[in-house]
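Invent a record, attention on tokens:
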Amino acid sequence: LMPSTAQSLGVTNPFDPEQNLRGGAQYLSQMIGKFGDARLALAAYNAGAGRVEAAGRQIPDITETKNYVARIMDMYRERGG
């Protein structure tokens, strides 16, 4: 979690695994609610919601983000999602 995101989610110690996981799950849930699409939510989680918005509510043309979304979606499908 980026410091400002962590703070907005009440994460006071981002190195505390419990706080970090809880905050990350809460942020991902917010992004799913905002974008209504798991792929866009993952892109926002990785690159930031502003970049997804700036890309026209598409996955931004950032190699790391594209790879991240593809990797997570592949793992989801492999587990029957």
Q: What stands out?
A: Helices lie at 3-8, 17-35, 38-47, 49-54, 63-78.
